[in-house]
Amino acid sequence: MPLRYAIIVTMLLATALCGCKSKGGNFSADKSIKEMFGADDATPSEMAANIFNTEDPDIRRKGIEQMSHKKWALREPYLKLFAEHTKPTAESDASVRAVAVRTLGRAHATKYLPEIVAALHDESSTVRWDAAVVLTDMPSDDAILTLQRIAVSDKSIDTRAAAATALQCYPKDSVYRTLLRCLDDDSFTVRKAAHASLVYQTKQDKGYEAAGWTGDGKAGAEVLPEPVVRYKKRPWWDWLKKTKETEKIKPE
User: CA 3, CA 10: separation in Å to the nearest integer?
Assistant: First the structure.
């Protein structure tokens, strides 16, 4: 018996034995084989119903992920449902919000760009990362300032890098200067993304040092912008230090 047939027979026997032990004794060879090979056994109505499961975010996420691979689901009214799940006010789980953003990107649903741009402000770095990745293929002028801020100051390295990559779509002087600043990032991942975006915009490669790019006049000024300075401050009268320090951002 050829090896591949022996493997298949062994897997079927193992599946049958597991099925016989299942709760209630219900066993379907067809269903088990589908599950074994990762086939989709849920109907469209079941997938949609999973999104409304209020108790298990994993089920909601799986429902959206399943539908994201179906052409029939990448249109209305399903897109409206996905867009609603990008909002923290409607969906409490960050992983579900992230996959909803990703699905809108897969559908290239430009109608819901406002929701995708809003996701850049999500408290979850995963959601912000997904939004930045989607905006690389679906640019929106409304996202420029937020992408610049994220590229420079987001706490997540991967999210800063994703924002730097997305900024390649916006050939503006202010964006150029932001990418120059990103070349001084502590993380090579961010510096690499910024470098790739600069090469994409200028069709030139002047290296990974910001100083190598400041002389071509593209930025409008041959100096790097001043970095954002953060500092702590108490009220002047609080010499006993009774109040907590408040973080301030020094204007550029």
Answer: 11
* CATH code for the domain of 155: 1.25.10
Is the whole model's pTM more than 0.90, yes or no?
Answer: no
Q: What is the DSSP code (8-state) at residue 142?
A: G
Give CA–CA dist 166/138, Å, rounded. Answer: 9
Domain's final residue, options 138, 166, 198: 138
For residue range 110-136, list pLDDT tens digits in order: 999 999 999 999 999 999 999 999 999
| Ramachandran assignment for 194, one of left (phi > 0), alpha (psi -120 to 50 degrees), beta (any other) | alpha
Total residue count of the chain as it appears in this document: 252
In a domain, 27, yes or no: no
Query: 191 vs 133, 151, 173, 198, CA distance in Å?
Result: 17, 10, 18, 10
Say if residues 241 and 234 touch (Cβ distance below 8 Å): yes
Q: Distance between CA 132 and CA 194 in Å, rounded?
A: 14
Enclosing domain of residue 171? 144-229+248-252
